[in-house]
Amino acid sequence: MDFLDRFEACIISGAIGDAWGSSYENEVETDDSHIYYLGKKNKKRRVWSITDDTQMTLATCEVLSDSFTPENLINRFIEYYRSRKLTGIGASTLKAILDTEAGLHWSQAGRIGEFAAGNGGAMRIAPFAFFLRYYKTECLRSM
């Protein structure tokens, strides 16, 4: 498996896991140990769907493949938001997008403190691992 195959597998696997996990979001586990069903318990039908984490990972890939700067990345997120390519974004991400659109520097945008406790950054970091390896290789080749 070469470098591009690994990159593709990582992004696709992340998207599949994200879609599968989306069917469990906001679900509350119930204790059925005292419930006796007549027949079989109805199982919830799981519906997979793409989420903002996958959409923003793809936006990150686009920026990394062109010309990465933090400004280009937030501008791509804004572009995705304006074109309605982002579904179900969290409050911190939405605030960061709106703050940046309003003119606040990207490094100052978004929620702070206990209200900034999202996991979106962890969900979107995978492309950077491949970018850094590729970038380092390209730099060495150009020397």
UniProtKB/TrEMBL annotation:
Q: Which cofactor does it need?
A: Mg(2+)
Q: Which keywords does this chain's UniProt record carry?
A: Hydrolase, Magnesium, Metal-binding
Known InterPro entries for this protein? Answer: ADP-ribosylglycohydrolase (IPR050792), Ribosyl_crysJ1 (IPR005502), Ribosyl_crysJ1_sf (IPR036705)
Q: Which domain of life is it from?
A: Bacteria
Nucleotide-binding among keywords: no
Q: Which Pfam families match?
A: ADP_ribosyl_GH
List ligand-binding residues for Mg(2+): 51-53
Where does the sequence pass through the membrane?
Answer: none
What GO annotations for molecular function exist for this entry? hydrolase activity; metal ion binding
Cofactor binding notes: Binds 2 magnesium ions per subunit.
Which family does the UniProt entry place this protein in?
A: Belongs to the ADP-ribosylglycohydrolase family.
Name this protein carries in UniProt: ADP-ribosyl-[dinitrogen reductase] hydrolase
Organism of origin: Chryseobacterium gleum (Flavobacterium gleum)
